[in-house]
Every structure is written in structure tokens, then in C-alpha cells.
Design goal:
With 242 residues, the protein is of the alpha/beta class. It has one domain: Rossmann fold. Helices cover 26% and strands 29% of the residues. The protein is built from seven helices and 16 strands. It has an eight-stranded mixed β-sheet with strand order 5-4-6-7-1-12-13-16, sandwiched between helices. A six-stranded mixed β-sheet has the order 9-8-10-11-14-15. Strands 2-3 form a two-stranded antiparallel sheet. Strand 8 and strand 9 form a beta hairpin. The longest helix is centred in the N-terminal third of the chain and has 14 residues. The radius of gyration is 17 Å and the shape is globular.
Length: 242
């Protein structure tokens, strides 16, 4: 049973260190599973590590986390070739799609090369819940800040645009993120948007922001827009604690 509306949970989190494995699902990922509305069967989740070049260690870690949680896992890899014949059909058969972090610029290029962008749009419109952290958050928006090009952060402005906003991630933990995000909105490089501290997620129903949620105490989400004086205006949004 798909979600009752196109649903994206864009986060700066979603995973945590595992007790006996590399990682386990955090409360944000648990919330994504809840949003899918699955009841009476094992939920299906597809994992993409495109932004890390389909790193096999990360894919293996996902399978471990999924099995611990009791999720029916699959993954979509694009290197050295797609591992799935019909990507759209596979994504439409999922309850949740989880996109891992890394290079958002690389992710966008590879997805467009292989038509994953349009497959994702079809899944989103059909009610498959799309989630992920960092690059897996920015990608759904019009753009954001990225270290895809080097240690000095730059703008990425060619996101998928499912959501007509910009997106800032790791807002509290990486020193360049906040001032660059604000500056890019102030000078018009990016449109107004939303940012998340680590452990915080943004829920969108359709293209509209619905709420901010958090798996950590004391963290925030933020609305950032260009004021009448041409400066960035930041408004804190207190997230609901999961």
C-alpha cells in the first residue's frame, strides 16, 4: 500500500552506528517506513549508494541493517552497469527508497544517464516514500551546498526539482554549510529553502513542506529566504521529536 500522497523525507540523518554491524536504521528511517503505510507484511526497501560509486561495503552494511530491522531489502547499482533490467518497475514495487550520501553531483549525473531520475519521479508520484540523507536529501530539491567538487563547498543548482526549494544539510556540524547556504539564497543562486541540523528530517507531502522531525534532542530545522534588503533571513523550525 503506497503512501496516501507523494512523500519525501529529506534528512541529515537516518542511520546510526550498529551494535554489531556498521550501521542500523535510525528513527528517521523508521518514520519513513511508517509513512509508507505498510501493514501486515514485510516492508520493501530499495537502497541506492550511487553517490559513493556503489561502494560494496556500504551496500553490504545496508543489507545487514535491513535484515536486523526485518525489512525486505534490494539495491539499485549503476556501476559497472545497472543491476536491474527495468528500474522503473522495480522502484514502483517498493515501499521506501533510501538514498545514501556522498557526491550529489555524481549521483545526479549517473541517474540522468540511466533514466533513474524519471523512474524516481514515477515512484514518487505513485506514493513510494523517498528518503535519504545528505546527498540523498539535496537531490530531490532544486539545489543546495555540496562538497562534490572538493573540500571548499560549492553550489549545486541542477537537482531533480521534485521539490521547488533549495536544501541545506549538516547545517550545524560543517562550518561552511550555513554561511554558504545563506549567501547563495541572498544572491539568488538558489531559491528559498529549508536546512537541517544533523539528525533532523523534512517531511514533504506533494511539493509542500509538512513538518520537521528529529531523531536527536536539541536540533533544528530552518527556513531560509531572501529578505527585502537582499539579505538572507533564517527562521528556526523546532522539529517534532520522534
Amino acid at each position: 500500500m503506497p503512501a496516501d500522497a507523494p512523500t519525501i523525507l529529506a534528512t541529515s540523518g537516518g542511520i546510526k552506528n550498529g551494535r554489531r554491524t556498521r550501521f542500523e536504521f535510525g528513527e528517521l528511517t523508521e518514520y519513513a517506513l511508517e509513512l509508507s503505510g505498510v501493514d501486515g507484511r514485510t516492508p520493501k526497501m530499495c537502497f541506492l549508494a550511487t553517490a559513493l560509486g556503489d561502494n560494496p561495503m556500504i551496500i553490504t552494511a545496508f543489507y545487514e541493517a535491513a535484515l536486523i530491522r526485518g525489512v525486505a531489502p534490494s539495491h539499485l547499482a549503476l556501476f559497472p552497469m545497472p543491476n536491474i533490467e527495468d528500474v522503473t518497475a522495480h522502484l514502483l514495487d517498493q515501499d521506501v527508497v533510501f538514498v545514501f550520501g556522498g557526491s550529489v553531483a555524481g549521483l545526479l549525473a549517473m541517474w540522468r544517464l540511466h533514466g533513474v531520475d524519471e523512474a524516481m519521479r514515477a515512484a514518487w508520484q505513485a506514493g513510494v516514500v523517498l528518503t535519504g540523507g545528505s546527498a540523498g536529501s539535496i537531490c530531490w530539491h532544486l539545489g543546495g551546498t555540496t562538497d562534490s567538487f572538493g573540500p571548499d563547498l560549492r553550489a549545486v543548482t541542477d537537482g531533480l526539482g521534485f521539490l521547488p526549494h533549495s536544501n541545506g544539510v549538516h547545517y550545524d556540524s560543517e562550518a561552511q554549510r550555513r554561511p554558504l547556504f545563506q549567501g547563495l539564497i541572498a544572491d539568488g543562486t538558489l531559491p528559498a529553502g529549508y536546512a537541517t541540523d544533523d539528525g533532523v528530517g523534512l517531511l514533504y507531502r506533494g511539493t509542500e513542506f509538512a513538518e520537521a522531525v528529529s531523531e536527536r534532542d536539541g536540533q533544528g530545522a530552518y527556513r531560509v529566504e531572501r529578505g527585502a534588503d537582499g539579505r538572507a533571513v533564517e527562521t528556526r523550525i523546532d522539529p517534532r521529536r520522534l
